[in-house]
Amino acid sequence: MATSSSGDRVPRDRPPHTDPLTLEVVELIGTVVARYHEEYEEAAAGHALTGAQARVLGLLSLEPMPMRRIAQKLKCEPSNITGIVDRLEARGLVERRPDAADRRVKLAAPTAQGAEVARSLRESLDFAREPLAELSREERLVLRGLLRRMAGGATT
């Protein structure tokens, strides 16, 4: 244990948040995120979608869900999701249907055309595949574990 200038004891094995390595890692994460968003926006535009519409469609392609849950997953207001789903529905990419478990709840779900657009969007995102292709399976497993830890999830 070391003692800080205020007299508090701090563990030696925890680097300060401003050490050069931490700053470089944060900068690299920012670069990857920015590159992902840029390519995602371009892919969405290629399908005449906004980035938000593409994210909702991609999420729904995994499983139908109610608007409130979409909003929770995307960390936005449910009223925003309603407008996005309205526009996707008008294009024939999404439909609203009753939830079999609770008929009072409406689920947003991709249509066949919407599922195809979502698949096409995923396949057009080369930026992640290209750098990851250079990593061995073991390196990708380590990276996945580290990212899960950083995100607060399980490491397995």
UniProtKB/TrEMBL annotation:
<dbReference type="InterPro" id="IPR036388">
    <property type="entry name" value="WH-like_DNA-bd_sf"/>
</dbReference>
<dbReference type="GO" id="GO:0003700">
    <property type="term" value="F:DNA-binding transcription factor activity"/>
</dbReference>
<dbReference type="GO" id="GO:0006950">
    <property type="term" value="P:response to stress"/>
</dbReference>
<protein>
    <submittedName>
        <fullName>MarR family transcriptional regulator</fullName>
    </submittedName>
</protein>
<dbReference type="InterPro" id="IPR036390">
    <property type="entry name" value="WH_DNA-bd_sf"/>
</dbReference>
<dbReference type="InterPro" id="IPR023187">
    <property type="entry name" value="Tscrpt_reg_MarR-type_CS"/>
</dbReference>
<keyword id="KW-0238">DNA-binding</keyword>
<dbReference type="Pfam" id="PF12802">
    <property type="entry name" value="MarR_2"/>
</dbReference>
<keyword id="KW-0805">Transcription regulation</keyword>
<dbReference type="InterPro" id="IPR000835">
    <property type="entry name" value="HTH_MarR-typ"/>
</dbReference>
<keyword id="KW-0804">Transcription</keyword>
<dbReference type="GO" id="GO:0003677">
    <property type="term" value="F:DNA binding"/>
</dbReference>
<feature type="domain" description="HTH marR-type">
    <location>
        <begin position="22"/>
        <end position="152"/>
    </location>
</feature>
<dbReference type="InterPro" id="IPR039422">
    <property type="entry name" value="MarR/SlyA-like"/>
</dbReference>
